Amino acid sequence: MKILPFLSLTPLLFFSPILAQERTDSLSFRMETAVVVSNGDDAPLWLTANRYGMGSNAARSAYLRAGAAWQKEMKKNWRIGLGLDLSGGKNLASKVWLQQAYADISWKMQTLSIGSKERAGFPLEKNERLTSGWMVEGTNMRPIPQIRGEIKEYLAIPGTRGWVAFKGHLCYGYFTDGNWQEDFVAPGNEFTRKVLYHSKSLMIRLGNREKLPVEFEFGLLTAAQFGGDKMKKNADGSVSLLYDMPEGLKDFWKIFFPKQQSTLQNVQGNHCGSWNFGLNYSS
Fold it and tell me: CA triplet 184, 189, 190: central angle to 5 degrees?
């Protein structure tokens, strides 16, 4: 496949501190655009992958993106962050959409994050420009709206003198691709809508770099889909409800502790996850 002109204007970031006595506020703006043109049937994978759903497999596509982010440090170790990111394009899954819209409230090392935000595979962050993807959750899809509590950096457990630390997160969210599935699926086939999302992780680190250059870390990352409606698209384009999947308060608890019904099926929800181990040496 021959590739004709490809144009990408990398993000332009402008930082301008808000006038304040302590000068702990910051406001940044972002603008980005990209155009892909080729004479093949599909765009090259390396121009569309790991872009949080901003790309398209269409041979010709374009998008324009603009956003702003505001951060403020407050007294007693409190911090607030707000972000808004609006996008639009041609030959993409949507013509106009909110790529990011979030509010972060942090105290010391703990953060409560509400909304849609691009998250680089926490707690297994990688360089997005070098990796081919993640095992459980990746950066090919648009951000999922969610309520999320997390400790982003390793926090030492009191009484261990820095030899044992942990980090992790817990969240519940909502998939927003129901309308797209309804348009995309062929008559006679099934699809889901209003599906809920759950994810959690816990990583433990053993070691103290100040005393020993070797550290061992291990932990678990899981993600799950549950609730929502199972639908069928009829020949005339209408849809019929096949099954209203459970999503009551007790189901939020059940999805937190998954139980296996068979070798291929869980009692509730669709689960995936990974056990993770790492041995680090600092010279």
Answer: 85
